[in-house]
Amino acid sequence: MAECPSRIQENTERHRPQRAQDSGDRYRSQRANVAQEEDSGDYLFSIGETTSAKSSDIWLVDSGATQHMTCSKKFMRNYKGFDAVDVHLADDGIVQAIGSGDIVMSMKTPQGMKKGVLTNVWHIPKLSRNLFSVGRFTKDVGPVTFTKDGCYGEAKGTKWKIGAREGKGLFKLQMTPVAPEQANAAKSSGCQGGTKSYLWHLRLGHIGHDGLNCIVTKNIELASTYLR
Q: Which member of 45, 70, 79, 89 has the lowest number of beta carbons within 10 Å of its beta carbon?
């Protein structure tokens, strides 16, 4: 994870200050921008207006959104519901988040196809598009930089193109959500011994599976000797 995320210019003047609705209200305020055609300070990824994709499959990236947000649960893992939270949109509309989960994203890097996980993605059923938060990405993963031809993400020393310029202030998203069953199948096929083996693989600093199996085998042998 990068130590020094780059600054992302935000056009905050267009938004109302965050505030609780009243002292007895159980809702908290959050914020999300919406895609704008004018040349503003917000950088947005877009699939493009000519695509035939359903709105629930379209991702926009918003430099003003406080969280990653999705209108559908279909790509989520580890989903948890919570008390409704108000999210204020740039057009003064208000929608409510009712849960959160993780979404695995697939992307092309100089080292080939890689996967990453967007954690704590908010579920907002009435949101018209999915929002990728640039601010959250730079805080949790690494910097995002914008050039004339596209935008780039950086993490663990790897820099890769995550968006190609689609129009005025818009970029075509080059990350794809992975269905939970596909993500789980990939994880299982890459780790011998199933979920428990994978967890130990992480706990032991990503030790190779041959080394992990050796440790497991020796521990089993020692346990058998001790119990005799």
A: 79
